[in-house]
Specification:
Elements: E1 10-14, H1 20-23, E2 41-42, E3 54-58, E4 63-66, E5 68-69, E6 74-75, H2 84-91, E7 98-105, E8 108-114
Parallel strand pairs: 2-5, 3-8
Antiparallel strand pairs: 1-7, 3-4, 5-6, 7-8
């Protein structure tokens, strides 16, 4: 789902009509795991080895802590109340927008929406 639009400090995901339904559940990190520190990638279930938490700051003025689930290659905290689910809902994503993940420091990232340009 990553499609380019990447530089050394950020990665982006193009929102399409096809992937919009998936984004409502979680943000896919396929093809960009190397962008994150290896110690933040946990096993497939939350009961197994716990990975080091990432801090995700959002363009909406709030942040959350999460790790990456190795099996689904998504941020584990996808809660609609406080995680990526909340961010996606409040962002009102549309086809043509981009989700941008920018590295701030080793374990801190910024999550922001880049609106499509018509």
């Amino acid at each position: 789902m990553g499609d380019g639009g990447n530089d050394t400090d950020s990665r982006s995901i193009l929102v399409t009509e096809k992937n919009l339904w998936f984004l409502e559940r979680s943000i896919p990190l396929f093809g960009m795991l190397e962008f994150f520190p290896p110690d933040c990638i946990g096993s497939g279930t939350s009961t197994d080895r716990q990975a080091r938490k990432l801090t995700i700051e959002t363009d909406q003025g709030w942040s959350f802590s999460t790790e990456i689930a190795a099996d689904s290659k998504t941020f584990r905290n996808s809660s609609r109340n406080r995680g990526t689910g909340k961010w996606v809902l409040k962002s009102a994503l549309q086809a043509g927008d981009r989700i941008v993940i920018q590295k701030i420091d080793s374990h801190t990232y910024k999550l922001r929406k880049e609106a499509r340009s018509d």
